[in-house]
UniProtKB/TrEMBL annotation:
Enzyme type, top EC level: isomerase
Protein name: DNA topoisomerase (ATP-hydrolyzing)
Family (UniProt): Belongs to the type II topoisomerase GyrB family.
EC numbers for this chain: 5.6.2.2
Keyword entries, A-Z: ATP-binding, DNA-binding, Isomerase, Nucleotide-binding, Topoisomerase
PANTHER family (UniProt xref): DNA GYRASE SUBUNIT B, MITOCHONDRIAL (PTHR45866:SF1), DNA GYRASE/TOPOISOMERASE SUBUNIT B (PTHR45866)
SUPFAM superfamilies given in the database record: ATPase domain of HSP90 chaperone/DNA topoisomerase II/histidine kinase
Pfam families: HATPase_c
Source organism superkingdom: Bacteria
GO biological process assignments: DNA topological change
SMART domains (UniProt xref): TOP2c (SM00433)
Gene responsible for this protein: gyrB
Native organism taxonomy: Bacteria, Pseudomonadati, Pseudomonadota, Betaproteobacteria, Burkholderiales
Enzymatic reactions: ATP-dependent breakage, passage and rejoining of double-stranded DNA
Annotated ranges, domain Histidine kinase/HSP90-like ATPase: 5-135
Length: 195
């Protein structure tokens, strides 16, 4: 979203329970049911993004002309490797929510539309805001004792800030009270000058 020019504010929080949340003010992950989905029931675009590899950024005429990252691998892998993941999407005046346990959707809605079984994402309210929140707890049965190192995350957020001109990235550590605001510009040149 940031690379495509739709997001200029990202908040990353390390919570006291060692979960992580990432909130942006982008357009929000698409929420409509994909009627061409081969799955039964047919799923929302948001569920597909969260559960299938290589699914990001391909859902409508507003697909990205520019992309960064791991080609849609990132969030679906985080989801599969998390004890729980909670997705909140704010899009088109509506607020949606979906929870996963180890990548599996919980409390799935099933409806029938035009003779097809569909599973829409649950609308939980209305909003004037837009964006996506992903909040997850890494699975300790996979990773063992997990300890996030603030300094390592801060370094990465700083690098991302230089590479995404005009994007403010905030990092908050509720465990220690540390907090930093990264809003650098200048790309690679700015980063080299900083170093």
């Amino acid at each position: 979203e940031a690379l495509a020019g739709y997001c200029d504010d990202i908040l990353v929080t390390i919570h006291a329970d060692n979960s992580i949340s990432v909130i942006d003010n982008g357009r929000g992950i698409p929420t409509g049911v994909k009627m061409d989905d081969k799955h039964d029931p047919k799923r929302s675009a948001a569920e597909i993004v969260m559960t299938e590899l290589h699914a990001g950024g391909k859902f409508d005429q507003n697909s990205y002309k520019v992309s960064g990252g791991l080609h849609g691998v990132g969030v679906s892998c985080v989801n599969a490797l998390s004890s729980w993941l909670r997705l909140t999407v704010k899009r088109d005046g509506r607020k949606y929510f979906m929870e996963f346990h180890r990548g599996v959707p919980q409390e799935r809605l099933i409806e029938e539309v035009k003779g097809e079984r569909v599973s829409p994402i649950r609308q939980v309210g209305e909003t004037e805001h837009r964006g996506t929140e992903v909040h997850f707890l890494a699975d300790q049965t996979i990773f063992g004792n997990i300890e996030y190192h603030y300094d390592i995350l801060a370094k990465r957020m700083r690098e991302l800030s230089f590479l995404n001109n005009g994007v403010r990235i905030r990092l908050i550590d509720q465990r220690s009270g540390k907090e930093e605001d990264f809003a650098f510009g200048g790309g690679v040149r700015g980063f080299v000058e900083y170093v």
